[in-house]
Amino acid sequence: MGSPHKYEKTHKPLHKLFRLIKPVMADQTLKRSAKALDKKAEIFNALREALRIALPEGKNGLNDDGDDTDMKTIKEKVAAFQEKLKSEETLSKRDEYKKMIQQIDTYWDKLFADPISVHTATGEQLIQPQRTNNILERFFRDLKRKYRKKTGTISLNKTLKTILSDTPLVKNLENKEYLDIILDGCNTLEQRFARVDSKLVLQELDKKRKETGRLPQILKKMIREPAFPRKLGELFGC
Asked: If you average pLDDT over residues 112-121, what whole number do you get?
């Protein structure tokens, strides 16, 4: 066996690191907090498993759409999860878990709603209502990301409050069928906007100003610009 001094140079950084983190490792308050977080993570993962949404082993993070487990099975799993949580005396008395159970009970009917029957040109189709607001949240994350990329601005609260309420509908331009309807025979958005009466646009802007407050002059100026349709399309990747 080699001399301990042989590895002294190699191990020195590790010993130094250990001395730095030793007080943290010995902190009893931190240990209790870490243990409590582990328990909460365990319960949250159990709920994700029951709902079959954003599963712990999934790779899509916040963009997870859930799997194709039938609704009856999911409902039974969530009910079992609630009963197990209620049966644990220590946990069932804590406010955070009481609120969790109450939240599930409040939205129970929406979580397990029956499919909606829709009549289409190809026949009847069944659409399962979304059990969360994940699609809407994903949309606004994408909207904010594109605005930040375009403007370099981190905080977009003011921007989102002052844009026209229908502006997010521009996102639909990524749908070819929707875009074809909007173009109405035109080849580009520029051609389609050229057919719009500018007086009608200003009237709508004035109506919005009276409803939501003063419309920024810079927005009016932007809309009057001939290149506005092209810039709007570039902003949303159209």
From this structure: 84
Same domain, 108 and 175: no
- The vertex-112 CA angle with 109 and 115, nearest 5°, equals 110
Q: Which two tokens stand for residue 52?
A: 């079959």
Q: What is the model's pLDDT at position 6?
A: 55
Could you please report the per-residue DSSP string of 35-49?
HHHHHHHHHHHHHHH
Largest CA distance in the chain: 91
Predicted confidence (pLDDT) per residue in 123-156, tens digit: 888 887 777 777 778 888 887 887 788 777 777 7
Whole-prediction pTM:
0.56
pLDDT bin (cut points 50, 70, 90) of residue 204 is confident
Structural domain boundaries, residue 206: 163-235
| Residues 79 and 19 grouped into a single domain | yes
Cα–Cα distance for residue pair 90/98, rounded to 1 Å: 11
120 and 212 in a single domain? The answer is no
**Which element (helix H / strand E) includes 69?**
none
8 and 113 in a single domain? The answer is yes
